[in-house]
Amino acid sequence: MHQAQTKLFRKFSQNHSPPPPRRSSALHDAIDKLSIVARVTNAITIQKGLNDKSMKMANLLDELLNIPPGDGFSNLQTLDLKKAKEGYIGIAKDAGALTKSSLDGAKNAQRLKHLGDMGKNVEMLKKAEAADLTDAIGKVTGSFDISTSLITTSLKPVSEHLNLLLKNKWTPDTDQRAKECINSLKSSLGSLGSTLREASKYEDSLKLLWSVINISQSFDVVERLGVVAKTYHNQFNEIRQLSKDFKNTKEEFTKLDSFFKQFSLLRLLKDSISKSLKIRSTTPSNSTKPRLLTSGFLNGLGNVQAVKKDLNNEWFLKKIARNDKSSLIVLKQYLRFFETVSSKSVEMETVFTPLRTISAKPIETSETLLNSAVEVYVNPTQLQTFQKSILEVGECIDKLGQMTANVNFETFQKTIQNLKSFDTSASKTRSLLKKIVELNVLGDRSVFDQLRTDINNINTSLPIGEYFSNIITMRANKNYLKIVEGVATVYEYFEEIGQLHIDIVITNLNTSLPIITQMQPVLKGTNLVDTLECLKNKNFNSSLASDVLKFGSNIRAFGVHAKNDKATISFLDLISKLQNLYFSVKKSLDGKRTRRATGSIDPTKLPNLLASQDLGKGLQLLRQLSEVNNKKKIVTDVTKFSDSVFAEVQKILKTVDTSTLKPELKKMLLDLTNLESFASNHTGQGLRELGAIFEKASEVSGVTVNSSLLEDPVAKTLSTSAVNDIKKAAPSFKTLGSLELNYANHRSTFKGASLCIVKIDEFFSDFFAAGGNVESSSGTLYVGVVGGIALLIGAGVGGFLLWKHLDMLKLLKNPVNYRHSAFTIPEGEMRYDEISETNRHLSIHSAISDRNFERFKNCVDNSADVNAYSCHSNYYSTPLHMAVTRNLVQFVAYLLKNGADPSKMDSNYQLPAKLAEKTEKKEELLAMFNKYSRGKKTHRKLPKFGPSDYKVWIHYNDMMAEAGEADTDVKEAFVKMFPKNMVTDAREATHIILPTDEKGVLSFDVRGDKEMFPYIFRETVLMKNSWMTACLKDKKNFADDYKFQVEGVEMKSETFNTVRLIHQHAQQYQIPYLAGVTMYYHQFPETPDTTFENLVRDLGADVRQDLRYLDRQNTVTASPYYRDDIGPVFIITKSKDELVKEYAFVKNNNCYTIFTYYEFLQFLLAFKITHWKLTGKKEPNCIEKWDELKQSK
């Protein structure tokens, strides 16, 4: 066994190792050394991920073995392969022993379907036979006597002549036809008047026709009777055959009983084979699909085990480890479980080799047959009941008799269709005649009569010049023109009526209608209704019987296949071995997790998966450049081809400009020479110097023509040329076509690799300098990065929320990020539109809305808040959202470069990148997000805001007065110490000092201090009065306003420690807390309190004043942005009991949230954020659907 594995491993190693370069070069040497760094770095990230369980073993092995994500070891560990194998052998044996059924499964399934369909119509059949159709048939036959002259009228000649004479453009041809038109109209206008007068009486003159509207409904049951009768007539012999087959069906049930009892085993077997086949469906080892966990191992398993040699590589020891062998030992010990994983992975590959070569066809056949079997599930109770009644069912069918009545089913069906057409045509005709009458073309007849007179007075025997002035006068008459247009419309309506061909339908029905009554007794003597009721009484289930027969056919087919199938068992054996290896390595991991190393190291310097990915991508491109460098001679040969060759290439690629191909190839040769020279000067140096190769490689732009086109169609077409020189060029172009030649779009990838080299070098430098410390007690090697990756690639809400949570913690720990943010906005306070007070914006928002880049850039360059929210029509969005929805790619790029946060959601909970997917410039916008999200995040640079900018106002109330003279002295001394910072109006202040208790908590008497309450929700910094005392002791405390900022507020004996959170919210111009809320007052004056009302408006609520003006809408679409556990319609009341008495509909309706005045203020101070789209977790009290608004008292 060991020898076999060794041979397989050698074979695998030969197959998967990268091919040796054709010649040694400095670039190859650089790639080899960078590959060492990539592998070792990736091994460290894998080891760390396995240690802290942030990396799943199943996902790691899937990627190493090139198994599609989700189809590999996560599925494999759930399979009971031993039971599946035993089940396959047992079921195959039993299925193979089944004798061939005497029942024709396919035919019986069709027979049973016919019987089942008829059974569904048994009640209808009885209704059809007893239906009295005398009245309906009488209405139809009565309508045959109508006069069809009106509904066959055509006004085409008169309409065309009127248009030609009075409306259409006059041409020489009109001169010739005018006489004809006038003479025709002299006679036809009278007929037109008669027709329109007759149309006005349509309701009475055609009332017999209107009686057939909706008449076809009366014939529905007879129509369905005809369908059943036709099926019965055609399938009688087949249905009768069921009686004989049912006698054998009971025996079939007995044979299949044991298989039905093993249904769960059949399903397990099918699932095991299906999931195992997915594991076999691996991607190619050289797949270009990006690796997320193993990006350092570009050849997959082929170089996983190379890490052991890499750590002993001479260059690595000298330049990376700096000959620090003791630290290197620590690193090797740290990676010992990674070594176990890599060796076990190679063992797994020895199993995969025969898995990849084994024929999948017989295994897929097994899966298909088993899947067909388990698709037919039969309830055991139903099966048992049906087995008992099967013979009785046969007796029911024995009573069936053949149909004796001679009915032409095709004629019957055509008659039914004619009746439906008659019904529809009558309804449409009535509608069109109504429209004709409503047009009232004749009016009061005076204009129409005058038109007739004017036309009759024209003497057409004279030359047209004699009466042309009359025609001109008539053409200028607007009333005449209205008649012309009206007649044209009436003509179109009559044409629609004529196309219904009611006269033809009447003729057809007149001869075929009797067949309707002939169909009613057609089933007499057949006993069909009695038989169907008999089957119903016996609980006959035709679909169940059909399923049983189908199941039997599938099981027999599987038995036949299994007799010759040897591959499936071998396949399951190999999958079982793979599973055992997986459990072995997993068990080893659980028992041997690497312990934490001692010491400390800066967590930001640890290598992470993102760095490993960037390095892997850069290396992949560098290898492709190296391939081009290897074939430099062929590239040179192509540049020497004659102009006639390149002219031929241009002919072949008609839609592609190839004029730059030759100069671009020449430049690429020069760039490669420079890159090789650069590499020769850096390969013997340290990692940073070596990594500079990536920066140099980013200068290679290559060619703009898609290289794959040079192989097909260019090389293929050139090879068929009759010109020898052109034909000889084909092999060279074919070679070029196999290479990657365009690198202009990969510059960012090279630069990303260059940047990650710096981070990796910092890690190794610190590690080996610190004596072998791998991780700190607080740092993470993997999980923090995973959160970022999850956000970047859209892996789910979880990663995004983790990132946002960490970002919020960072803000809270470093208040400098927000505490003076609003004060430093150069454009000043938020402005409100004159049109709507809910619309609010800053200058940066206006510049984006106006698409004025210069003004926008000036705002950003002068430290505008690039993350501040604006509001338009109750929709809140950041500058980034605004720029995205307007397809402003340049604006988006500038925002991202200057601190715009792509993780902020708009008031519809949409990220900017998500909105970009719905725009016209989707690709360009998403490219911007990808480009700037990978680099170092740039924060908005805030202008300096120091103590000299503070504007302080001191609130003096009864509490301070009670404190006595001591407190007053402190205040006066503080004012004298900072006189230039004092202001006399609270509205001008950046800082307001308020009275607080010994714990620094602000105690509010809302009535006495109501004008101060809104400042809690504004940008103003609320300060404890202890700040003054501290400043008198040490003047430096004046600058440290964060330390002395109010943190808590007490109201009604409840303390709310949310002041800093609320202040941060206001400083950052976040979406207001009451966004999505509609506010009503109950039992208050018209305005309960100006200060209060201004506050709720500032917080984003839509204030609707008194409850009596509640919107009378039936549904609610708005929702509180920050809360999903309360209704969006807020009602502030003095008495909840009185409210419910007066407006009962608000009770037990989740749309309404009811507060007393103080309860609402406490609600604001609590400042809870619970909406699941913000927190990522749905709580049990989350409201997912609003009740209807019911306002009736």
Q: Which secondary-structure class do the elements indicate?
A: mainly alpha
Share of helix, binned: 55-70%
**How many strand elements?**
14
Identify the quaternary structure here.
single chain
Which geometry do the CA atoms define? Answer: extended
Head-to-tail CA distance between termini: 86 Å
Mean pLDDT level: 79
Q: Summarize the main sheet.
A: 4 strands, parallel
Low-confidence stretches: 1-23, 283-288, 594-605, 773-813, 827-836, 958-965
Strand sequence of the main sheet, in spatial order? 12-11-13-14
- Approximate strand percentage: under 5%
H/I helix tally: 54
Our Rg estimate from Cα atoms comes to 44 Å
Transmembrane segments: 781-803
Protein name: ANK_REP_REGION domain-containing protein
Region (Disordered): 1-25
ANK repeats: 875-907
Description:
Keywords: ANK repeat, Membrane, Transmembrane, Transmembrane helix. Residues 945-1035 form the BRCT domain. ANK repeats lie at residues 875-907. The protein is extended. The protein has a four-stranded parallel sheet. Strand 3 and strand 4 (875-877) form a beta hairpin. The chain starts with a helix and ends in an 18-residue tail after the last helix. Helix content is 59%, strand content 4%. Among the domains are: 152-205 and 406-520, no CATH class; 821-934, Serine Threonine Protein Phosphatase 5, Tetratricopeptide repeat; 1071-1193, Rossmann fold, CATH 3.40.50. It has 1193 residues and is mainly alpha-helical.
